[in-house]
């Protein structure tokens, strides 16, 4: 039988179209991994919004309102932990599974997860795949141009880092689940149900999300200090970042061989952890609604627990709305800083704060450059740090003003919840659950910008660095 006219030509055109589409996709992922990551985040949010909109995803069997489904999807993919519904009772077991899967994908990072899958399939990473994966480990890599300064993780080490990410996630979450299982049984959870809740809590701790699978949250375990300590360890390991875990796995006992990033992350994290606990202890020890009714040991432990969770953990055994206004301000400051870069935590990152603090110290000392541990921090890193803080403060300010105008609630409560959303912490004064749909959409956008916006800005700032063969005349404006 004769071939139909135009058949081969049509076949060749389809193949050519597919080839062009594949080339365009490859160029996009290589030229702008940050832009590609944002696009995939949006697709994932839309996908999980559809999943949470299924009647089978809710405990009542009814379709969830669009605003609640979208907000839950954003909070899950962005590993935030805020919710407009009771996570323990509103969603069915299938909905809880969607939450569990979503936080794992969101916490590991879109670029990292894609690279791990590629490594599993092809058994090797090409240069393009390494460039894409490096965009998740360091925002300064997330552009197509050259990077002049040394990076936290070099391209030759990206494959090993991806293996570390996958193994550390599996090992740490499995270890946390094993440790949490007895505490759940002692707390009254059935052994069969604990087999689900233990890995769920482990994942929520390591991913710094803070969702609870049961209706009462951590309230039934408020005096189980072993369980709370395990959750604190999980949050700490998730917040320091995969590059730091990679460094510690290679040079555990050789502190001098640690990267500057690892040193700054660990030191700043510990300093903020202790300082935050001391601040909460001082401000809340006589508050009868929080720590005032506890003995000395309980007060000290709960202060450290609250300090750890305000950094990005999201778990709480007290009502955040009962904190004094001064404590809400301290909590907002800790949440805004967040955890380590390339971690499951949010915020402007502890290394950003460390770089700016070192820059201020160097300026006060009159030093020509910013230095730490025998290393010089280049000016482009300082510009990125300043830009990230300015970007984060702008997002928080605009969102706070908008939501405060819509909700007409006290500004300190609005500010706390907005920073919690921006920094993907998950703690709430109770405001988020009472927001109207317009305010819910603003909060969801805030969470999305907090998760991917700072990385995109950092990549844009880094990409804008170009060689200039001339210099303009110098004129010094009055500052301060």
UniProtKB/TrEMBL annotation:
Family matches, as PANTHER family: KTR SYSTEM POTASSIUM UPTAKE PROTEIN B (PTHR32024:SF1), TRK SYSTEM POTASSIUM UPTAKE PROTEIN TRKG-RELATED (PTHR32024)
Lineage: Bacteria, Bacillati, Actinomycetota, Actinomycetes, Micrococcales
Keyword Metal-binding among UniProt keywords: no
Gene Ontology terms, MF aspect: monoatomic cation transmembrane transporter activity
GO CC annotation, single: plasma membrane
Record's keyword terms, sorted: Cell membrane, Ion transport, Membrane, Transmembrane, Transmembrane helix, Transport
UniProt xrefs under InterPro entries: Cat_transpt (IPR003445)
Transmembrane segments: 36-54, 97-121, 161-186, 225-248, 260-283, 333-361, 381-401, 439-463
Tagged with keyword Transport: yes
Membrane topology category: Multi-pass membrane protein
Biological process, per Gene Ontology: metal ion transport
Ranges in coiled-coil conformation: none
Protein name: TrkH family potassium uptake protein
Main location: membrane
């Amino acid at each position: 039988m004769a071939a139909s006219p135009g058949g081969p030509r049509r076949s060749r055109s389809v193949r050519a179209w597919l080839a062009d589409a594949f080339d365009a996709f490859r160029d996009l992922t290589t030229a702008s991994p940050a832009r590609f990551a944002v696009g995939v985040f949006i697709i994932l949010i839309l996908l999980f919004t559809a999943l949470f909109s299924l009647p089978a995803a809710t405990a009542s069997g009814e379709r969830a309102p669009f605003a609640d489904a979208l907000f839950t999807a954003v909070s899950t993919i962005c590993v935030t932990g805020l919710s407009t519904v009771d996570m323990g009772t509103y969603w069915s077991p299938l909905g809880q599974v969607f939450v569990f899967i979503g936080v794992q994908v969101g916490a590991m990072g879109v670029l990292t997860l894609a690279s791990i899958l590629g490594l599993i399939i092809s058994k090797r990473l090409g240069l393009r795949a390494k460039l894409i994966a490096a965009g998740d480990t360091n925002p300064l890599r997330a552009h197509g141009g050259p990077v002049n300064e040394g990076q936290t993780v070099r391209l030759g080490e990206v494959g090993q880092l991806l293996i570390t990410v996958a193994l550390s996630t599996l090992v740490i979450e499995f270890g946390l689940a094993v440790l949490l299982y007895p505490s759940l049984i002692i707390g009254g959870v059935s052994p069969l149900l604990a087999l689900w809740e233990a890995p769920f809590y482990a994942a929520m701790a390591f991913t710094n999300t803070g969702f609870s699978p049961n209706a009462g949250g951590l309230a039934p375990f408020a005096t189980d200090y072993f369980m709370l300590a395990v959750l604190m360890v999980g949050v700490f390991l998730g917040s320091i970042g995969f590059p730091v875990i990679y460094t510690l796995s290679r040079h555990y006992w050789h502190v001098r061989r640690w990267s500057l990033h690892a040193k700054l992350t660990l030191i700043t994290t510990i300093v903020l952890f202790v300082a935050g606990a001391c601040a909460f202890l001082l401000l809340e020890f006589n508050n009868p609604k929080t720590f005032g009714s506890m003995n000395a040991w309980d007060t000290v432990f709960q202060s450290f627990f609250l300090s750890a969770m305000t950094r990005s953990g999201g778990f709480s055994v007290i009502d955040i709305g009962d904190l004094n206004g001064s404590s809400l301000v301290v909590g907002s400051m800790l949440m805004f800083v967040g955890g380590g870069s390339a971690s499951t935590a949010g915020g402007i990152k502890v290394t950003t704060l460390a770089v700016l603090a070192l820059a201020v110290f160097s300026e006060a000392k009159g030093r020509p450059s910013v230095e730490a541990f025998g290393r010089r921090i280049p000016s482009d890193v300082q510009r990125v740090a300043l830009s990230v803080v300015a970007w984060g403060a702008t997002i928080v300010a605009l969102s706070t003003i908008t939501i405060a105008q819509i909700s007409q609630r006290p500004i300190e409560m609005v500010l706390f919840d907005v920073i919690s959303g921006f920094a993907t912490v998950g703690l709430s004064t109770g405001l988020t659950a009472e927001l109207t749909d317009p305010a819910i959409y603003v909060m969801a956008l805030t969470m999305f910008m907090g998760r991917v916006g700072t990385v995109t800005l950092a990549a844009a700032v880094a990409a804008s660095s170009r060689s200039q063969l001339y210099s303009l005349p110098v004129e010094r404006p009055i500052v301060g």
